[in-house]
Every structure is written in structure tokens, then in C-alpha cells.
């Protein structure tokens, strides 16, 4: 079940997504929630909802989300959902507790640290080799400089070979430990996933920096997200049911949009191609209201007014129905929706002065999603740390 959002800062999107997920878990046996968040931070939340770890409150468990934009996961809706999930899991056996995972790849430094920390306990010799292989990461982020090992030699290609070798070694180690234990463990899976993040984050950084390669860093990122979802499903079992929370741009089928015509793919497309009708893609839209967003990358989030949707957009078409909020089943082929229209996408930045070029793209909505939830007037997400208006 893929539950999207047209912005990273709208209360109605988060609250409705959480409510749907609660019913999927309680009434339909869903096993995991996977978010557009980083792995180490979500592992802390995963331990909390499984009634493990040192955190005693949802606020403590979510405090690890320090990377911009903090409001995306440190907000009142996620706090309440995480608290509910812990209470729900408390009555379940360990093998039936619902997990909470992240599928993004922006945690290069944190995941590197977690790999070395885990290997130091499990296999000190491999930990020492890993430190040497990871020395090349300092070229990406000087904070990862490790003075205990020789400086790295070789270029980006050599670094990719090194981090791939670590991932391969970690997978062999975790496979062996699983055989010894007779079962999979969250700790071993977490180690393997952190090594995967490092490997794929290096590929992402190299692609992002090489403007002449013709490759898309977006594709590297979404392929990593899909690979992570597959790994989670394999870890939980072949029949595992998963809810995914991410932006519409990641969860709608890219082949229906202008980004697909540019050669970009996304999680929704890859999951549809792999699972067909066993996957349901749900988009969220709004006409106007307020949103929690920033005016530039890294700036503090604040409550911003969302301009009314543009003429020629799906959002304006939905507004003109006069129905404030509704669910539309696109699989029934509604007449008049088959022609391409504009669709709005607000990320962590909102730039009203360049609304058309910054926040709209062409799409065929019935091909992009199976269903859409429209909220005509929405309000800003409330972060745990209050933001200025």
C-alpha cells in the first residue's frame, strides 16, 4: 500500500495516512511501515515501537531526526502514530510486532558509523578492514576522516569498489550468523541495510556530482528505495504486507508523468512492475490552505500560505466540483480525467513566486495512481519544535 502526499508539510495528508495505516495494521494484518526517512533514525524508532531500546516516549524516539527538514518526521502526527504503534505491539509476540523502517539514502555518515560499530563487536578483523575501505568516504564528507587508517587512494570508481566489497562481506557475515541463530534478527538486518545505504549513497553522490554522465541521481535514489523495500519484505517474509509513506513524486507511477519522459523512474513504477495489482498507489492533493515548508534548503520551516491551484490542474478540477474532501477511485476510468493536466508537488521548499515552474508537472492521473484523496483546504503540519508563522 503506497500512501503519498503532495507536500512534506500538510497535516491532513499525514493524519489521514496514519489513520489508514492504523486500520491496515489492526484489521488487515500489515507488518511494516516504511517511510521516506533515513535508516539509522528509523531504526531507533523501530526499537521503540517494538518496546526495546532506551527511549521511553515517542518524542525521545523521534529526536534522532536532526537532518533538515526536521518537521517531516518530528511532528505531532508521527508522534501520536509511533505511540499508538508501541501500544499495539506491546500486546503482540516478537515475531508479529509491526516494524518501522526508513528507505532513503541520505545517512551516509551515520550508516558508516553504525556498520563499524556493529562489526567491532561481531567481527573485529572485518571491522578493521572496513575502516580502511571506508577511508575514501572522507572525499565526500570530511567529517568521516578516520586518522586511524591510511588515507584513501584512487578515485570515485575505487571507492565504489571498496564500499561494495564491504557490503558483500557484511552479507556473508549476516547470512552465517543467521544460520547459527536459526532465525533472522533485527540487529543483523540493520547492519546489512546500513552497509547497503553506504554502497548506494556513494553511487548517488558520484552521479549527482558528475553532470556529464547522463545518469540520473534521482534514479539511483529511487532504485535504492525500491531495493530497500524488497530487502524489508525478504526480511519479514514472503507474505509480508507493507505500507509506504512518501511524496507523490516517489509513489505515483513515473511512466504517467513528464519525469518519466525524461528517463526518470520511481518507487511507484518499480513496485507496480514487480507486484502488479498486489500494489495499490494512492495520491493526495489539495487546492489551497497552509503548509509547513522552507523558502530555501536548510532554512527554518515556517507556516506558509499555499496559493490556489492553477487553471488546467487536477487540483483546480477537483476544487471546481464543490466537494470539500473526497476519495476518487481512478481504476474505474472517470471520464474527463484521461487527458494530461498539471499536478502540484511541494517538497520541503515552497516557492510561490515561481509556482508554475517550481511546483507543477504534467501527468495523466488515472495512470499515475489507483486512487486519489483530495482535501480542498488544508493546514500546515505541526512540528514538535514550534515553527514561526
UniProtKB/TrEMBL annotation:
CDD domains membership: Ere-like
InterPro entries per the UniProt record, alphabetical: Emycin_Estase (IPR007815), Hydrolase/PRTase-associated (IPR052036), UCP036794_erythomycin (IPR014622)
Protein name as catalogued: Erythromycin esterase family protein
Species of origin: Deinococcus malanensis
Amino acid at each position: 500500500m503506497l500512501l503519498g502526499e503532495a507536500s512534506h508539510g500538510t497535516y491532513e495528508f499525514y493524519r489521514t495516512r496514519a489513520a489508514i495505516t492504523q486500520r491496515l495494521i489492526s484489521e488487515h494484518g500489515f507488518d511494516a511501515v516504511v517511510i521516506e526517512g533515513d535508516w539509522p533514525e528509523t531504526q531507533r524508532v523501530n526499537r521503540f515501537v517494538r518496546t526495546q531500546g532506551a527511549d521511553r516516549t515517542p518524542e525521545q524516539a523521534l529526536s534522532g531526526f536532526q537532518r533538515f527538514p526536521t518537521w517531516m518526521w518530528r511532528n505531532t502526527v508521527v508522534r501520536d502514530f509511533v505511540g499508538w504503534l508501541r501500544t499495539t505491539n506491546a500486546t503482540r509476540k516478537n515475531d508479529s510486532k509491526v516494524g518501522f523502517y526508513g528507505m532513503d539514502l541520505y545517512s551516509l555518515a551515520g550508516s558508516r558509523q553504525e556498520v563499524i560499530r556493529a562489526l567491532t563487536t561481531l567481527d573485529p578483523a572485518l571491522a578493521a578492514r572496513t575502516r580502511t575501505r571506508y577511508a575514501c568516504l572522507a572525499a565526500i564528507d570530511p567529517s568521516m576522516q578516520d586518522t586511524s587508517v591510511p588515507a584513501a587512494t584512487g578515485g570515485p570508481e575505487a571507492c565504489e569498489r571498496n564500499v561494495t566489497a564491504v557490503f558483500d562481506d557484511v552479507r556473508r557475515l549476516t547470512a552465517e550468523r543467521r544460520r547459527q541463530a536459526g532465525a533472522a534478527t533485527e540487529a543483523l538486518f540493520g547492519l546489512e541495510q546500513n552497509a547497503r545505504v553506504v554502497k548506494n549513497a556513494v553511487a548517488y553522490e558520484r552521479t549527482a556530482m558528475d553532470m556529464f554522465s547522463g545518469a540520473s541521481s534521482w534514479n539511483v535514489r529511487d532504485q535504492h528505495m525500491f531495493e530497500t523495500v524488497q530487502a524489508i519484505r525478504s526480511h519479514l517474509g514472503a507474505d509480508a504486507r507493507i505500507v509506504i509513506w512518501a511524496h507523490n513524486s516517489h509513489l505515483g507511477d513515473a511512466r504517467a508523468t513528464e519525469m518519466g519522459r525524461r528517463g526518470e523512474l520511481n518507487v511507484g513504477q518499480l513496485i507496480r512492475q514487480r507486484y502488479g495489482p498486489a500494489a495499490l498507489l494512492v495520491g493526495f492533493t489539495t487546492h489551497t490552505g497552509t503548509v509547513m515548508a522552507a523558502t530555501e534548503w536548510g532554512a527554518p520551516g515556517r507556516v506558509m500560505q499555499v496559493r490556489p491551484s492553477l487553471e488546467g490542474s487536477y487540483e483546480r478540477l477537483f476544487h471546481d466540483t464543490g466537494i470539500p474532501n473526497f476519495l476518487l477511485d481512478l481504476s474505474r476510468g472517470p471520464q474527463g480525467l484521461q487527458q494530461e493536466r498539471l499536478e502540484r508537488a511541494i517538497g520541503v521548499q515552497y516557492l510561490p513566486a515561481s509556482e508554475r515552474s517550481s511546483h507543477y508537472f504534467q501527468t495523466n492521473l488515472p495512470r499515475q495512481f489507483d486512487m486519489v484523496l483530495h482535501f480542498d483546504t488544508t493546514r500546515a503540519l505541526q512540528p514538535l519544535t514550534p515553527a514561526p508563522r
